[in-house]
Design goal:
- The complex is a heterodimer of chains A (112) and B (112).
- Chain A is mainly beta and 112 residues long.
- Chain A is 0% helix and 54% strand.
- In chain A, strands 2, 4, 5, 9, 10 and 11 form a 6-stranded mixed sheet that branches. In chain A, strands 1-3-8-7-6 form a 5-stranded antiparallel sheet, with no helix packed on it.
- Chain B is built from no helices and 11 strands.
- In chain B, strands 2, 4, 5, 6, 9, 10 and 11 form a 7-stranded mixed sheet that branches. In chain B, strands 1-3-8-7 form a 4-stranded antiparallel sheet, with no helix packed on it.
- Classes of the chains: A mainly beta (112), B mainly beta (112).
Amino acid sequence: GENVEQHPSTLSVQEGDSAVIKCTYSDSASNYFPWYKQELGKRPQLIIDIRSNVGEKKDQRIAVTLNKTAKHFSLHITETQPEDSAVYFCAASIDSSYKLIFGSGTRLLVRP
Amino acid sequence: DTAVSQTPKYLVTQMGNDKSIKCEQNLGHDTMYWYKQDSKKFLKIMFSYNNKELIINETVPNRFSPKSPDKAHLNLHINSLELGDSAVYFCASSQDPGHEQYFGPGTRLTVT
C-alpha cells in the first residue's frame, strides 16, 4: 500500500525566511497530493493541493511542486510569518481510493 | 454554521468501558471518514464511508464499530476501551475521494 515519508520533522526559521517541507510517496498510481495545516489544538485544514497532471501550483506565499518521476512533492512557504507556525502534513492518494495517507508531519516554528 | 461537528469534544473514561463519538456534516458531502491522531501527531485513516456504505476499514480492531444512519452522520462506537485507544479522533467529510476533506474539531479520548 501507499507510504508517505515527510522531512524534516521540525523546522525553525526566522520570520521573513522561506520554509521547505519535502515528502516522498511509494505508490506511483497516486495522483492527488494535498497539504494540511494543523494549529495547536485545532483541526487539520487544507492549504493547497496538487494533482499529478501539473508540476507546480501557487497560492500567494504558498507553492507546491511535484516530481512524478522521483515521486517527490514539496511545500514552499515564502516570507514566513509567526502565524505560519503549525504542524504541516503532506498526504497522497489515488483519487478513487477513499484512502488518504498522511506523512508524519513537520512542526514549523517561525521566530519573530 | 459549523461544517463538520463532533461530540463530545473531550471524553475521559476507564478501561473496559464502551463509548461513542458522534459526527455530523452539513456540507451535503457523500463521503465521511474517521481518523486517529496519536500523541506523536500521526494521522491515520480508520474508516471511509460513501453514501452510508463502508468502503475502507483500515485494519481497525473490531472493538471499533462505525455506523452511518444517513449521509450526514457517521458515528463511532468503541467497546472495551484500552489504554492504547487514547488519542484524538477526527471525523472528516468530502464530496468525493480525491477532493478536499473537511475535518471536525476532534474528540480527545483519554482512557485511564
